[in-house]
């Protein structure tokens, strides 16, 4: 499993730090669409499929992936939640903290 983590004292601080690092870019979104079209990567297609271009509030932040800046989703959490995710794994994470 590959994912990035932005962890700060609060979830809001983590979201702000992530948004400062990764900005939306329509040209990069188009570049990703072209690479997915020409890729035989199953995981990349699965992560990309079903994305409307809008960011989903499901606990995993896809903007870095959707804008061709990272090959993984990111978590934006407070330190306690990020630590729990790393110790318990993603399946347990949704049960404990709920989908966001």
The biggest sheet, with number of strands, parallel, antiparallel or mixed sense and barrel status, is: 2 strands, parallel
User: How many H/I helical runs?
Assistant: 6
Uncertain spans: 93-100
Number of strands: 2
Order of adjacent strands in the largest pleated sheet: 1-2
Share of helical residues: 40-55%
Domain module tally = 1
- Average predicted confidence as pLDDT: 82
Shape: flat
Structural class category: mainly alpha
Gyration radius, in Å: 14 Å
Any overview of this molecule?
With 100 residues, the protein is mostly helical. It has one domain. 52% of the residues lie in helices and 10% in strands. It is built from six helices and two strands. It has helices at residues 11-21, 26-37, 42-48, 63-66, 79-88, 90-97; strands spanning 4-8, 74-78. The chain has a two-stranded parallel ribbon. The model is unreliable at 93-100 (pLDDT under 50).
Features:
single chain; 100 residues; mainly alpha; two-stranded parallel ribbon; 6 helices; 2 strands; 52% helix; flat; disordered C terminus
What is this entry, summarized?
The chain is mainly alpha-helical. The protein is built from 6 helices and 2 strands; from the N terminus they run βααααβαα. 52% of the residues lie in helices and 10% in strands.
What's the layout of helices and strands?
Elements: E1 4-8, H1 11-21, H2 26-37, H3 42-48, H4 63-66, E2 74-78, H5 79-88, H6 90-97
Parallel strand pairs: 1-2
Helix pairs in contact: 5-6
């Amino acid at each position: 499993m590959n994912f990035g983590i932005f962890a700060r004292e609060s979830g809001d601080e983590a979201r702000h730090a992530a948004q400062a690092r990764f900005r939306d870019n329509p040209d990069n979104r188009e570049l990703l669409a072209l690479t997915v079209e020409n890729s035989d990567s199953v995981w990349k297609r699965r992560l990309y499929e079903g994305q409307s271009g809008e960011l989903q509030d499901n606990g995993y932040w896809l903007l870095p992936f959707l804008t061709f800046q990272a090959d993984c989703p990111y978590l934006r959490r407070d330190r306690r939640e990020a630590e729990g995710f790393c110790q318990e794994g993603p399946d347990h994470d949704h049960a404990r903290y709920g989908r966001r």
